[in-house]
Amino acid sequence: MKKLVFSIVTVSALALAGCGGTDKATKAEVKTSGHGNTTPVKSKTEAAQIKMLAAQFPTEPAKNVVATSVSVTEMLDIVGITPVGIPSTTHKLPDNFTAIPKIGSAVEPDVEKIASLNPDLVIGSESIKDSIDKKISQINLKGAYLPTDSYPDLKISLEVLGTAFDKENAATTYLTKLQKDEDKIVTSIPDKAAPKVMILFGTGSSFMLMNDTTYVGSLVKTVKAKNIVTETMKTKESYVPLNMEDVTAANPDAILLVSHGDANAALTQFKADVKKNGAWEKLNAFKNDKVQALDYDIFGYASLANATTGLEQLKDILYK
């Protein structure tokens, strides 16, 4: 069968992902996790990662912080830190951050604007560290970079911010509530076979498959569904070109579409494209009407604030 491989702009994937001192690092040696514990605890690997990430931050908490990532901006609000600059975005930012100066997009921040805010520290997403570092080094600023690609990444990063800004209680309180909500959702999943899921990211003729290491993929994994990229295709890349041979072989039970803008319009267009290729309609997902466009406001970027809602929606979509 002829392979249908589509391309996608890297910036879109980055946008979805959201795009020190020894004392801080030492404080980050924490506790491990699992469903059933309402208090989140950390494995030794996670504790080591938190310690390493916390070492990027100054010993004394920075006073004036610029956030170049929507995900980071949201987490700063969670721990009670108000930045002096935040990214320009179409995503909803915390209401109390409305008047804060905008510094441009997450991938192309305005260096002059950042400099004018006189920050002590710039905090961004680890996935674009090299790009941001190159820009802020021009104005002699240092950056700290946090993983924001997946749901587990965000939990780790919130822990780091709590450590870096002496806001451990705020971070722990939030994560404890988050874990409790997650456990409630997961334990309510019906006792049935886990569905095989394909997650598509993109628009029109530009689609990629999303792995468990992406935000949406990690939420799907949390609700115990099987991602065909991981389970069947055995691929470790976060975003994988769409290949009809692989998709047909995997035969997903459900297809989830993550697309900019109107989810229903994207789904209508996708289904129209599908009719041009008979192989699609033979998939279990189409036979059982399990093709769903996800709400971009909830799933369009890596978000701790939206995670519980996202998990609940995925549970309902995949197990109803």
UniProtKB/TrEMBL annotation:
PROSITE patterns assigned: FE_B12_PBP, PROKAR_LIPOPROTEIN
Tree of life domain: Bacteria
Keywords assigned: Signal
Pfam family, one: Peripla_BP_2
Residues annotated as domain Fe/B12 periplasmic-binding: 64-320
Matching InterPro entries: ABC_Transporter_SBP, ABC_transptr_periplasmic_BD
Secretion signal span: 1-17
Similarity remark: Belongs to the bacterial solute-binding protein 8 family.
Protein name, UniProt field: Ferrichrome ABC transporter substrate-binding protein
